[in-house]
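Hypothesis: this fold can be encoded by more than one sequence.
Test: take the structure tokens below, design a sequence, compare later.
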């Protein structure tokens, strides 16, 4: 791990921004944003997802997600249905055209990212994914107490939710 938290944060931010920039350069050829691609990606599982799950997956605030979903509906890539288990919620699904679009975008992004394979060997890539997932889970659960244990109250205070 980086010697100081700010060093790790800087490395993570730099990698995220460069990654998004690279993916966006591929998606630009299809007039698609990274956020729309993330929404299509989540919906590609065929399960249908509520707006909260989509907002979290796309890293968008609810009003921005609503606008994006409206655009995807207008493009006939997504449709909405009332959740059969909770009629107060709406689930979004891909249309057949949306599934084709997601497959096309996904294929092009994978081809572009395949160029990273030599410098990021498969073993290293898997390890990086595991470490980033572990870090994200620890951060979601709360900050550590210095001994590797998670303290949710510290994380809540840091997020401005604690009292």
């Amino acid at each position: 791990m980086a010697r100081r938290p700010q060093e790790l944060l800087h490395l993570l931010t730099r990698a995220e921004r460069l990654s998004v920039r690279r993916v966006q350069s591929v998606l630009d050829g299809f007039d698609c944003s990274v956020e729309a691609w993330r929404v299509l990606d989540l919906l590609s599982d065929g399960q249908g997802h509520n707006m909260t799950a989509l907002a979290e997956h796309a890293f968008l605030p609810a009003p921005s997600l609503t606008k994006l979903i409206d655009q995807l509906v207008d493009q006939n890539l997504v449709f909405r249905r009332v959740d059969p288990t909770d009629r107060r919620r709406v689930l979004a699904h891909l249309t057949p055209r949306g599934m084709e679009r997601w497959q096309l975008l996904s294929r092009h992004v994978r081809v572009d990212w395949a160029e990273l394979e030599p410098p990021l060997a498969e073993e290293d890539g898997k390890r990086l994914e595991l470490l980033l997932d572990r870090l994200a889970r620890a951060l979601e659960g709360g900050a550590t107490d210095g001994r590797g244990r998670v303290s949710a109250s510290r994380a809540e205070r840091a997020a401005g939710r604690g009292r």
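The radius of gyration is 18 Å. Residues 23-115 form a domain with the Arc Repressor Mutant, subunit A fold (CATH 1.10.10.10).
Hypothesis status: open.
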